[in-house]
């Protein structure tokens, strides 16, 4: 089989793992792809170099293709995401001092977002200065989740606390130096903050919104249209990498590969924590259900409703006006049609719908598809809200009203 | 010189490169040029210098921080756009290839900013070339040391003159179609393995 060379940008984060495994375990090669991975230093570089064609594809923050397609970024360009790199994998880490203040206000050390959020609200009120939190990018899942958790806990972002942007590897240092009081980031940077800077994990994305998407494979819409076979090959390679990664027997090998100098350059023990969901949250080990889901629960399927949820948050925080055409642009960025057609030859079960309601499923359950069935994990929001994409306008209105 | 009233801010953690760009801009008649090496100072500097154009290197991991800062600034009526003109694809391509990014206050005319970015790109390329050449010279020095060591081994073990030892290394390299330094390195390795400890 002839090989086509593809260049992909990535950032040193655990959830680049499916791209890394696609290369290292030969899943890309099996699909006729020669996959070159380029480690980048900032999300802005990933986005711009993808827009310019330096990268054919890239690991991207789930909201990033939306931001470029909606013209929120300097190099505006239609981008799409035909496959998701997993669910979860984020957490909120706070400094030792802030954790003690939160514990004094009743925060339990079990990551419960309702209780730790309430304790944070009291700590924010009692603080003589404005607390400062770091996120990795403005249009990042982290920014929107952190804001969602804060707002539902009675804290008004931007008014009650400050949110700043720093690249993932710099967050633990900034926390240790006192430049920020907490941050929301993907692994391994929470575990590293705990291990090296005395940080404490307060809550996790997997508890704020169960089974929610975080990173995707993003690419220019025109490139995808010009190379449908390559796009299908990429989707299958990522799907197979996910299947392999989800196998518990493969965890230690996967962690060892990711720990390598070319990828995370960190200890494989720390890298492996997120894969098992057993986190050291600050002297206490906690098993977090569904902490990072590389494959199960249709984790690689790009639900258009998930794109719309991120769009709803962009509207909520004033980044884009609520317009029917903007919602249409956002939904068009996620491409379940490409995912389905790429996997059709494998005969695996793939959701029939492009949209799902999130916030209803409290326990794992089956969904029936045209060619089988899929187990889906819980998808609750911690505050009990329900996101029905067919009622987008009223969802946005209710959130804007809450501030 | 119509451009000289523009205020330009250079953000580059590489001090040498930053000063090369600064010199270039000053030679071009720009007097309002500020340089910062630590992006943490950016907020303060932007307030004091009120730059019209910001030039930053792409290796800087804090580009995201900078963009976020600009998006906040947008709210306070200091709109900032990346590069000279979004439609100028070739210019952006050239800048990114060279490793430089520029941010410009919206409303500035393209023709006023283009020469600045052109200058920054050529200085970035010149710096990259200098660095490459320096590495090459270092590599050549290192090679020479290895060849000298191999010559000394031949002179000692086979009683050859320096010229003959050099000629033998060279002809072996040519016959085997390998670099002389590789032959010399093999010889040193073999001598270490075989020679008296």
Features:
heterodimer; A: 403 residues; 5-stranded mixed sheet; B: alpha/beta; 7 helices; 62% helix; elongated
Model description:
- The complex is a heterodimer of chains A (403) and B (197).
- Chain A contains 18 helices and 16 strands.
- Chain A has helices at residues 17-24, 27-30, 43-52, 64-69, 96-104, 113-126, 141-152, 171-176, 189-197, 205-208, 221-226, 228-245, 251-259, 268-276, 304-316, 324-333, 336-343, 392-402, and strands spanning 4-10, 33-39, 57-61, 79-84, 87-88, 90-94, 131-135, 161-165, 182-186, 200-204, 215-220, 278-280, 285-287, 292-293, 365-369, 372-376.
- The longest helix of chain B has 49 residues, at 110-158.
- In chain B, helix 5 (110-158) packs across helix 7 (180-194) and helix 6 packs across helix 7.
- Chain B has a five-stranded mixed β-sheet with strand order 2-1-3-5-4, with helices on both faces.
- Residues 75-79 of chain B have low confidence and may be disordered.
- Chain B has 197 residues and is α/β, with parallel strands linked by helices.
- Chain A binds chain B through residues 41-45, 48-49, 52, 54, 74-76, 136-138, 164-167, 169-170, and chain B through 58-65, 67-69, 71, 81-83, 86, 89, 92-93, 96, 101, 103.
């Amino acid at each position: 089989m002839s090989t086509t060379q593809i260049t992909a940008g990535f950032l040193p984060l655990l959830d680049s793992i499916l791209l890394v495994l696609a290369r290292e375990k030969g899943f890309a090669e099996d699909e006729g792809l020669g996959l070159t991975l380029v480690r980048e230093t900032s999300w802005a570089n990933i986005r711009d170099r993808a827009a310019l064609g330096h990268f054919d594809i890239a690991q991207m923050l789930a909201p990033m293709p939306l931001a470029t397609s909606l013209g929120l970024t300097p190099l505006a360009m239609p981008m799409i995401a035909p496959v998701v790199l997993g669910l979860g994998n984020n957490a909120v880490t706070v400094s030792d001092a802030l954790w003690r203040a939160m514990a004094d206000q009743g925060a339990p050390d079990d990551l419960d977002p309702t209780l730790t959020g309430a304790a944070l609200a009291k700590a924010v009120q009692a603080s003589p200065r404005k607390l400062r939190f770091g996120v990795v990018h403005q249009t990042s899942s982290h920014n929107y989740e952190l804001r969602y958790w804060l707002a539902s806990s009675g804290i008004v972002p931007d008014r009650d606390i400050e949110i700043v942007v720093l690249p993932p590897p710099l967050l633990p240092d900034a926390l240790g130096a006192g430049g920020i009081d907490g941050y929301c980031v993907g692994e391994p940077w929470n575990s590293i903050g705990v291990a090296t800077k005395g940080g404490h994990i307060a809550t996790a994305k997997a508890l704020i919104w169960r089974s929610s998407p975080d990173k995707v494979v993003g690419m220019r819409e025109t490139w995808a249209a010009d190379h449908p076979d390559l796009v299908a090959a990429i989707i299958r390679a990522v799907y197979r990498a996910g299947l392999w990664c989800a196998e518990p027997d493969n965890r230690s090998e996967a962690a060892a590969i990711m720990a390598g100098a070319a990828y995370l350059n960190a200890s494989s023990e720390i890298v492996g924590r997120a894969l098992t969901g057993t986190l050291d949250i600050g002297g206490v080990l906690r098993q977090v259900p569904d902490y990072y889901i590389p494959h199960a629960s249709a984790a690689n399927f790009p639900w258009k409703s998930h794109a719309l949820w991120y769009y709803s948050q962009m509207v909520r925080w004033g980044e884009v006006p609520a317009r029917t055409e903007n919602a249409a642009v956002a939904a068009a960025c996620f491409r379940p049609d490409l995912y389905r057609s790429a996997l059709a030859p494998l005969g695996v079960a793939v959701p029939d719908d492009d949209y799902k309601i999130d916030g209803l499923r409290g326990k794992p359950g089956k969904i029936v598809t045209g060619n089988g069935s899929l187990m889906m994990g819980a998808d609750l929001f911690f505050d009990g809200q329900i996101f029905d994409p067919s009622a987008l306008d009223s969802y946005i209105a209710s959130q804007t009203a809450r501030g | 010189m119509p451009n000289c009233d523009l205020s330009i801010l250079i953000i580059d953690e590489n001090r040498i490169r930053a000063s090369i760009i600064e010199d270039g801009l000053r030679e071009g008649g720009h007097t309002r040029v500020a340089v910062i090496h630590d992006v943490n100072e950016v907020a303060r500097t932007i307030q004091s210098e009120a730059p019209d154009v910001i030039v930053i290197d792409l290796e800087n991991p804090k580009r995201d921080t900078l963009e976020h800062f600009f998006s906040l600034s947008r709210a306070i009526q200091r709109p900032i756009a990346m590069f000279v003109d979004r439609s100028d694809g070739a210019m952006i391509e050239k800048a990114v290839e060279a490793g430089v990014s520029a941010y410009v206050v919206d409303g500035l005319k393209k023709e006023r900013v283009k020469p600045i970015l052109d200058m920054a790109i050529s200085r970035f390329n010149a710096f990259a070339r200098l660095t490459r050449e320096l590495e090459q010279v270092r590599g050549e020095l290192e090679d020479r040391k290895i060849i000298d060591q191999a010559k000394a081994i031949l002179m000692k073990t086979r009683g050859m003159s320096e010229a003959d030892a050099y000629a033998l290394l060279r002809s072996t390299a040519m016959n085997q179609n390998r670099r002389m330094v590789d032959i010399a390195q093999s010889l040193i390795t073999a001598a270490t393995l075989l020679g008296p400890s």
